[in-house]
Amino acid sequence: MRLNPNIPWKTRGNGAISIEVKDGDSKIIKKKVEGLVNKYAKFEDKKTNPGFVILDNQPSSNIYEKCVKGIVTLKETEKLLNSLGAIYEGYKNKRGLIGATASIAWSPKNDKTYELIAYREENKWGTKRKVNIESVKKMNDIFSSTFDNFDYENNHNRLTPSSPCPVLYGIRGENIDDLIKASSVLLSEKIQSRMIFETNQGTDDHLQRKNISEIKPYQSVITKGTVVSNPHTIEGGHVIFTIMDSTGKIDCAAYEPTKQFRNIIRKLIIGDKLEVYGGVRKEPLTINLEKINIKYLKKQEKKVENPVCPKCNKHMKSKGTGQGYKCKKCGIKSNKPIVKNINRNINTGFYEVPVCARRHLSKPLKRMKP
Ligand SMILES: [Zn+2]
Question: Could you count the other beta carbons within 10 Å of the beta carbon of residue 146?
Answer without folding.
Answer: 25
